[in-house]
Each structure stands twice: as structure tokens, then as C-alpha cells.
Amino acid sequence: MTRPASTRPIDPADRVIDVLLRDERLVDVFVHHSRHFEKLRNPAVRRVMARLVTVEQAARIAGVSVDILVRDLNAALFGIDAANIASAPPSHAGASTVPTAATRPAALPVVELDVRDDMRVGREPFSRIQAAVSALADGHVLRLRTVFEPVPLFALLAKRGFSSESRSDAPDDWSSWFWRALPESEASVPGGVQIPRLAALARDDSGGERREHEVWLDVRGLEPPQPMLRTLAALETLPEGHVLVQVNQRVPQLLLPVLAERGYACEVDDSRLDRVLVRVWQPEGH
Fold it and tell me: How many CB atoms within 10 Å of residue 252?
């Protein structure tokens, strides 16, 4: 039977905000263990950090023992000798909720998102983070700037197939990278650029524009020369009689003469506000 929160000992899985709601003075226990927790005295930061981070995750962020932190929090909460309080059960303290950091692919394009200012004034940054993750193109890396290591995100995004890596640039400045492992259906081209095979290029966002025998390649958001490299690599494996449709943000002026030089025909449709469609095919007799 679960004991009421007023008598139940603090557990590593408890959120920091719930711990501080039980007794505001417990912030001093956090700060005693690490100066890193001074930011919990800032109501704006607390609204973001304390609401999302568990005691176990907070201990990992600050590099302190979760067992000792939980022991001292309970000692202060109940006003008894810390030596008489049992540490957290091994099943909690020994189980890491954070995936092991992976090695970030150095050659992939990086998308930057800085939410440090949002966090410092107590604005909820996770809607922006979710939007950036959802919009992240295949083969890209998201670099997230935060005021503390976003430990809860690691496990959350791992469930969505993301690997992660983090680094402290300063006490209130963290960089974390998130990327999806490249599936086996992808192939490499010279220069380390990863190119999806044509079977993986089709997307469902054509708005009814897709024609029969077309393969679509969306290169919006990619940094040069990625759009050209991906397009040329896709043309190498384009099935006979098919048309490659490059979806771009602008007319690819540098790509067009290269296509002509290689004997390809193309058609540019720039009538839409949100995309430019470049249809490329091999004329008969080539």
C-alpha cells in the first residue's frame, strides 16, 4: 500500500518539483551537494528544470551520488539523523534511465536550436524542441543548447530511435546532439555523404502532385553541397523510365548546368510558394 506523500520517504524517481513542494527548504540540501543546484533558487529555472527532472536525473546532472542525496533529503524532510535513513532501494538507484552516449557522426549536417533564453525566464522550451525533432531531416543532427544537461530527453528520444551525446561548455551552457542511426537501406557515396536508396525517397507530402513513375527527393533544409550530391547519387540508381523530382526551397542554379552536361533533361516548376519542383529524367537515346 502506498503511503501518503507527507510520510512517504523521498525516492530517486520523485520529480524535483514534487520534492520542493513538500518542503521549500530542501533546496538547501540540493545546493549543499552541488553548487550546480543554485539555479533551483531561480523560480524561472525551477519551473522548467524541477518540473521535468527526477532526483536521480538531477544527481546525474550534478555528478553526485543519488544514494547520498536521497538520504540527506529524507533526513532534512523528517528531521532525523541521516545515518538512520536507509538509502534508496538498489532497484531504483542502480537503474540508469539514460541511454549510453553514442559516437556522433561527424560528417552529418547540423541543425541548431538554442533554448537557453527560454529556460532562463521560465518559458516552456519543449514544444520548440519537439517541433525541431519532428522536422529533422533524415541524415541530420540536432544540436540543442540548454542551461543544464537535458537528461529526460535522452530516454524520451531514444524511444523514437535517436542516439545522443552531450557536452558541458560552461556551468549553465550545455550542448546536446540527437540523431537517428542510418538504416541499412541507405548507401554511401564518395565523401562520406549518406544517400537514401530510391525506395526510401518517396514521401507522402506531395499534396497530390505525384505522378506515376516518379521518385521524389526532398532536399529542403540541407546545406550545400548536400542537395546536389544527393540528387546526382539518386539519379545513378533511378529506374529506367522514371523521373526524379527534387523538392527544393529555390531553383538550384548550380545543379542545372551539371544536369545538362551529363545529358539529363529537366523541368523546373517554381509556381508554388513553399517549394520548387525540379523534374529530371534521361531522354530516350541517352
Answer: 20
Question: What local confidence, expressed as pLDDT, does residue 140 receive?
Answer: 86
Q: What is the largest CA-CA distance in the chain?
A: 89
Which H helix or E strand runs over 26? none
CA pair distance 238, 247, nearest whole angstrom: 16
Which string of b and e fits 90-106 if b means at least 16 CB within 10 Å? Answer: eebbeeebbeeeeebee
Q: In this structure, are 173 and 242 located in the same domain?
A: no
- State which residues of the chain have pLDDT below 70: 1-7, 44-52, 81-103, 181-210, 285-286
Range of the structural domain that residue 67 is part of: 16-93
Domain count, the chain: 3
Tell me how far apart the alpha carbons of residues 225 and 241 are, in angstroms, rounded to a whole number.
Answer: 27
Judged by DSSP in three states, 164 sits in strand
Residue 195: what pLDDT? 39
Whether 9 is covered by a domain: the verdict is: no
Amino acid 198: pLDDT:
38
Q: What is the pLDDT of residue 92?
A: 37
Last residue of one domain, picked from the residues 180, 196, 212 = 180
Measured distance CA(233)–CA(246) in Å, rounded: 12
